[in-house]
Amino acid sequence: MNKIITLIQCYAENLSALSVSKRLGTSYVSIQKHYEIFRFLSAKICEEEYEELADKQCEYEEYFYLESSKKLKREAIFDAHNFLSFDYDEHIYTLIMPSLHIYKTQMIEDQIEDSYINEFKKFKRENKIIKVSKRLNNIVRFWEYFEKSIVKYKGVNNDKFAYFLKEFEFKYNHSKDDTINLLIQAYFKVSLKR
Fold first, then answer.
1. What is the pLDDT of residues 73-104, one digit of tens each?
2. What pTM was computed for the model?
3. Can you tell me the distance from the alpha carbon of 104 to that of 110, in angstroms, rounded to the nearest whole number?
4. What separation in angstroms does the CA of 36 have from each of 115, 126, 160, 170, 173?
5. Three-class SS state of 94
6. What's the longest Cα–Cα distance across the chain?
7. From CA 95, how far away is CA 162, in angstroms rounded?
8. For the segment 128-182, what is each residue's pLDDT rounded down to a tens digit?
9. Which of 17, 82, 86, 166 is disulfide-compatible with 43, CB 3.0–4.6 A?
10. Half-sphere exposure at residue 123, Cβ-oriented, CA atoms within 13 angstroms
């Protein structure tokens, strides 16, 4: 139980699995598996909170994320992650959109890849202008937090991106102490059911 609580505290402090494994003298794979469980629980808590907020009015914005190492690569637009960010009274909720990657083959076969890339570049330019000139609000603050936080992972697999997005949503919406307490409650509640 103490090990789990320690790992939850490390997760809440944004310590990497590798640094925690070195600090505790434990297997990296073991820490990584626990972090995956914590991400799953973070997503579950976010969904439960959304259910309570869904009837309230909200603001939303569309956002796309592309790793900085890919931003200059023309064909990398198909690797971009597109998601909606909702602000329910200073509480962020994210909804990931379908990946563009699934359309890449069809666009190449239909020979419309170039026109799509050109349209996407235009969208990026317009989106950047809007984002820079837009007032700083809770959604923009979340995007900045997300961009700053995800960099430490040096690339996230597409199939796990949604869980990382939910991790940052969860941590953004809660203080470190609340993050720890909510995860401890959720972890041991799930563990008791096993």
1. 666 667 778 888 999 989 999 988 877 666 66
2. 0.79
3. 10
4. 39, 36, 9, 14, 19
5. strand
6. 57
7. 9
8. 434 434 567 899 999 999 989 888 877 777 788 889 999 999 999 999 999 999 9
9. 166
10. 12
The Cα–Cα gap between 148 and 172 comes to 12
User: Where in 143-194 does DSSP place strands (E)?
Assistant: none
Three-state DSSP state, 93: strand
* Of the candidates 87, 94, 65, the residue with the CA atom closest to the CA atom of residue 155: 65
Q: Is the dihedral of CA 26, 165, 150, 59 positive or negative?
A: negative
> How far is 170 from 173, CA to CA, in rounded Å?
5
Token pair belonging to 132: 């820079």
| Residue closest to 143 by CA, chosen among 120, 162, 168 | 168
Helix, strand and coil percent figures for the chain, each rounded to 5? 70, 10, 20
- At 30, which amino acid appears? S
